[in-house]
What does this fold into?
Amino acid sequence: MQQRLILLLLITVFIAACTTSPMGRKQFILIGDEQMNQMGVASFQKMKTSAKVSDNHVANRYVRCVANAIVNELPEKWHTQQWEVIVFDDNSANAFALPGGKIGVHTGLLKVAKNQDQLATVIGHEVAHVISRHGAERVSQQMGLQIAIQTTDAISKNTMANQGQQKTLMSALGLGAQFGVLLPFSRSHESEADLYGLDLMAKAGFNPRMSVNLWENMAAASGGRTPEFMSTHPNPENRIKKLSSYMPHALQLSQVAHANGKRPNCK
It folds into this structure.
């Protein structure tokens, strides 16, 4: 009876947590936007005190110009939010966006993203992670897996007399969670952010074709890579292939943007 009640409770929680991403993918989210925003703001504040903020006014103005053009294309809920854009003096080719309206760009990225369109590709991608609530989804996956593992542990204690069997089951469940759920979902997030980010930058009037050039630059800069099935990011070749397949749609959005006078000129 106790086992049935636990399973029924789990099923109820999982059903209640189902939602849909902007690209139409089903999601499992247990945590609210307000909590994620608080975590994002706190993390960004910590970064600003622990990392070096760039005092290069030209770089800051350039990055804000690109970021603002992307933000202007967000759904109203996100567009009306106050966004903070900071350039960090860091040689790594990296950028990120956090819940709570925070965008960070490393100076090293400006050496790999050769123009405004390539930079828009990265910023669009990172903002797409936030709008798609990928962070909340990842936290929820961890929470859900923890609940499942604890429940399995409780049930196995009642059904397995052999402690060795119980230990083997828990180890297998942990390994299966890592390679069967967490990493594939992370790659799914990356692919989804690629396409939704492409939509955002195209709607802003940037050239979506430059996305392919950007990821080619990133692939050249990254050198050796972990095999895809054990990585949180798609292989560059697969990423570029998906972007190329999606390009006709992005080009249509870009044409509409240009017809409406959207032609960014960030320098």
Remarks:
- The chain has a mean pLDDT of 82.
- Residues 21-259 form one domain.
